[in-house]
Amino acid sequence: MSDETFEVVPIAHVVGGRREPTDDHWAGTEAIIRIDDPRFTEESVQGLDSFSHLEVVFRFHLTDQTDLHFGARSARDNPEWPKVGIFGHRNMRRVNWLGVSRTRLLRVDGLDLHVAELDAVDGTPVLDIKPWFAEFGPRGPVQQAAWSTEMLKEYF
C-alpha cells in the first residue's frame, strides 16, 4: 500500500443546474462551470469554444463518506442485477470521491463555461477541465454489462 498523498484544490465550481444528485434524467440539464481560481484569466479558456464536449473531473462533495462499500454489491441495490465490486460501478461511492463526466459545451462567456448534461450538482467543486478529443475515446469494440445498459436507459 502506498503512503503517497497529495492535495487537490478546486479550480472551479458548478453553478446552477440540479441541487440534488439523482440517478436519472440528466438530459437537458444545463449549468455553468465557473472558473473561480484567481490564477486563471480568460486566456485560460482561449480556444475552448472550438470543442463541442468537455471532460470534467469533480469531487462528490455531498456523498456520505461513511457509505463506502469495498465489496461486491448490486447497482442501486437492485437484486435483479449482479453484484459487482467497487471498480465495476461508476457511482458516487468512490475511495477518493472523484467523478468524471463528459459534458456538452454550449458556450464560453469569460470564465463561465455553459454546459449541458453535466451530472454534477450546484456547488460541486471542479478539479480539472479538459477538451474532449475524439481520438482519446475508446478504440475497438466497446463492451459493457447488460445490467449497466438497462440501468442507464433513462440517465440522459
Automatic annotation (TrEMBL):
InterPro entries: TrmO-like_N (IPR023370), YaeB-like (IPR040372), YaeB-like_sf (IPR036413), YaeB_N_sf (IPR036414). GO terms for biological process: methylation. GO terms for molecular function: methyltransferase activity. Transmembrane segments: none annotated. It comes from the Bacteria. Keywords: Methyltransferase, S-adenosyl-L-methionine, Transferase. Pfam families: TrmO_N (PF01980). Residues 8-141 form the TsaA-like domain. SUPFAM superfamilies: YaeB-like. The keyword Nucleus does not apply. Belongs to the tRNA methyltransferase O family. PANTHER family: TRNA (ADENINE(37)-N6)-METHYLTRANSFERASE (PTHR12818:SF0). This is S-adenosylmethionine-dependent methyltransferase.
